[in-house]
Design goal:
The strands form 2 sheets. Strands 2-3-1-4-8 form a 5-stranded parallel beta sheet, sandwiched between helices. Helix 4 packs parallel to helix 5. It is α/β, with parallel strands linked by helices and 209 residues long. The chain is globular. It has 10 helices and 8 strands. Helix content is 49%, strand content 15%. The protein has a single domain, classed as P-loop containing nucleotide triphosphate hydrolases (Rossmann fold, 3-Layer(aba) Sandwich), CATH 3.40.50.300. Bound molecules: adenosine-5'-diphosphate and zinc ion (ZN). Adenosine-5'-diphosphate binds next to helix 1, helix 2 and helix 3.
């Protein structure tokens, strides 16, 4: 079973995709995390992507399409996977259509205040890539998962956040109509607690016990 998590930056795609991945035992494929890892490694892919990410723009379609296509061929994807942050444009969705079948697209919705607070309080672990919110860190400066240093992403600074939200509206939001027309869209409003919101997602997908 293959799923997509759709929604604006900071709505909680990564957090919920991770929980669903653990529940179903299928991998979470986060293109943002893959690109940040490539930058850390200094690979050619990372070099190509870095400028776009720092400016809050999208990395060119063909770069991410090739990266995802290759990733989905790995053996761990055979039983299914959860795409987190891909597709982000209509051409990406069309390309994905050519190499896979999607079961459901979970469209996460939240008001702008919730999103801004998630983004400005978000810290990411340099070593394991885990994301944490300062509200849940209780002043800790090390990653609760691996002890690595926590970083405030350059693209989580206020000006870049604003630009990423504009990019979302212009380039990614059209996917809502695209997947609605395909009969795959499942809307979930996520403005409660992480646990409560995940319960709503499970219910919407018919996975609640
Ligand atoms: P968020 O969780 O805030 O949505 P991500 O970690 O998913 O952020 O993505 C961070 C950045 O990586 C994006 O702003 C963009 O530059 C790049 N990126 C990630 N996924 C894609 C994609 N599918 N297409 C183009 N660029 C992408
Ligand atoms: Zn860590």
């Amino acid at each position: 079973m293959n799923f997509i998590f759709l929604g604006p930056p900071g709505v909680g795609k990564g957090t919920h995709a991770k929980q669903l991945s653990q529940l179903l035992g299928i991998p979470q494929i986060s293109t943002g995390e893959m690109l940040r890892e490539a930058i850390k490694q200094g690979s050619q892919l990372g070099l190509a992507a870095k400028g776009y990410i720092d400016r809050g723009e999208l990395v060119p379609d063909q770069v991410v399409i090739d990266m995802v296509k290759q990733r989905l061929q790995a053996p761990d994807c055979q039983k299914g996977y959860i795409l987190d942050g891909f597709p982000r444009t209509v051409p990406q969705a069309e390309a994905l259509n050519r190499f896979t079948r999607i079961k459901s697209v979970v469209n996460l919705l939240a008001n702008e205040d919730t999103i801004m607070s998630h983004l400005s309080g978000r810290r990411v672990c340099r070593d394991c890539g885990a994301t944490h919110h300062i509200r849940r860190l209780d002043g800790a400066t090390a990653c609760p998962v691996c002890g690595g240093p926590l970083i405030h992403r350059d693209d989580d600074q206020p000006d870049t956040i604003r630009h990423r939200l504009e990019v979302y509206h212009a380039q990614t939001e059209p996917l809502i109509a695209y997947y609605k027309a395909a009969g795959l869209l499942v809307d979930v409003v996520v403005e409660g607690t992480i646990e409560g919101d995940f319960g709503l997602i499970k219910e919407a997908l018919g996975l609640a016990s």
